[in-house]
Design a protein that fits this description.
By secondary structure, this protein is α/β, with parallel strands linked by helices. It folds into 2 domains: 108 residues, 3-Layer(aba) Sandwich (D-Maltodextrin-Binding Protein, domain 2); 125 residues, Periplasmic binding protein-like II (D-Maltodextrin-Binding Protein, domain 2, 3-Layer(aba) Sandwich), CATH 3.40.190.10. The chain has 9 helices and 11 strands. The strands form 3 sheets. Strands 3, 4, 5, 6, 7, 8 and 11 form a 7-stranded mixed β-sheet that branches. The chain has a two-stranded parallel ribbon with strand order 1-2. The chain has a two-stranded antiparallel ribbon with strand order 9-10. Strand 1, helix 1 and strand 2 form a beta-alpha-beta unit. The longest helix is centred in the first third of the chain and has 10 residues. The chain is elongated, with a radius of gyration of 19 Å.
């Protein structure tokens, strides 16, 4: 089941919080929405997505007590909550990887290594002709997620990119990146695995030591694929509404969660 970004229609049932829904990882929108429905909570919990950073900020501000995130919560946020006497509990819910996506044009053996990716996203490399194996030329249309995205934070961490170049265009959702890399042969983007579509392809990462490495289940679980990552749900137990508590309990139940993880094309923890 592919990423679903449309929020459910209900408002969180809570007198403690004014938020109309849970903000958090856009990558996890499909999984969270499916979990809410499967748990029978769609009348009480509304998942908005909008990015890991927004979920983190909402928890820090006391607007919600759950933050689904595609990166680890920042230490300074945990410290700020601890200073208020609040506990942060981390749940690893699945494994994922950041994939480099381009339009599928017959299995071209494109060679992308970390140095090339850094060059592309800092605009030092701007033409497809500079990428080994692309067999094409023309300006690379370089796309990324916005700064609220945990995937953006993880991408910067993995690649060492500190600032994106002026040639890079930010899009607001994984779904937009999926559409653009499925329809525009000049486009290149990074995304979680949920961004894969029939008309785009995942480009393996290349290194002299290991050759071409793809984000397979084995490579992600072993972290051999260099852009492998965990997906998280953070909770502040002292602030949970009854609906949030019910949802967290369901997410901690592997029998409940693992089929949803697989249906959303993520990888179970083991």
């Amino acid at each position: 089941m592919k990423l679903k970004l449309a929020a459910l229609s209900a408002i969180i049932s809570s007198s403690a919080f004014s938020a109309v829904g849970l903000k958090g990882s856009d990558t996890l929108a499909g999984l969270m929405t499916d979990a809410i429905v499967a748990a029978g909570l769609e009348g009480e919990v509304n998942y908005l997505g909008t990015g890991s950073g927004n979920g983190e900020k909402a928890v820090a501000a006391g607007e919600q007590a759950i933050a689904p995130m595609s990166r680890e919560m920042k230490p300074e946020v945990k410290a700020a909550l601890a200073a208020k006497g609040l506990t942060v509990v981390e749940h690893k819910v699945a494994l994922d990887a950041i994939a480099m996506l381009a339009k599928d044009q017959g299995g071209l053996p494109i060679q992308l290594d970390l140095e090339t990716i850094r060059g592309i996203y800092t605009c030092k490399i701007t033409d497809w002709a500079s990428i080994p194996g692309s067999n094409k030329s023309g300006t690379i249309r370089v796309l990324r997620r916005d700064d609220a995205s945990g995937t953006t934070d993880a991408f910067k961490h993995f690649t060492g990119v500190k600032e994106f170049g002026a040639c890079v265009t930010a899009l607001a959702s994984t779904d937009e990146l999926s559409v653009e890399t499925s329809t525009d042969a000049s486009a290149l983007a990074y995304s979680g695995l949920s961004g894969k579509r029939a008309a785009n392809k995942i480009i393996p990462l290349y290194s002299d030591a290991s050759g071409r490495t793809s984000p397979t289940v084995v490579n992600i679980r072993s972290f051999k694929y260099p852009f492998s990552r965990f997906l998280y749900v953070y909770e502040v137990p002292e602030k949970l509404t009854s609906a949030e508590k019910s949802l967290v309990e369901k997410l901690a139940d592997r029998t409940f969660l693992d089929p949803i993880v697989q249906n959303n094309e993520f990888i179970t923890l083991d």
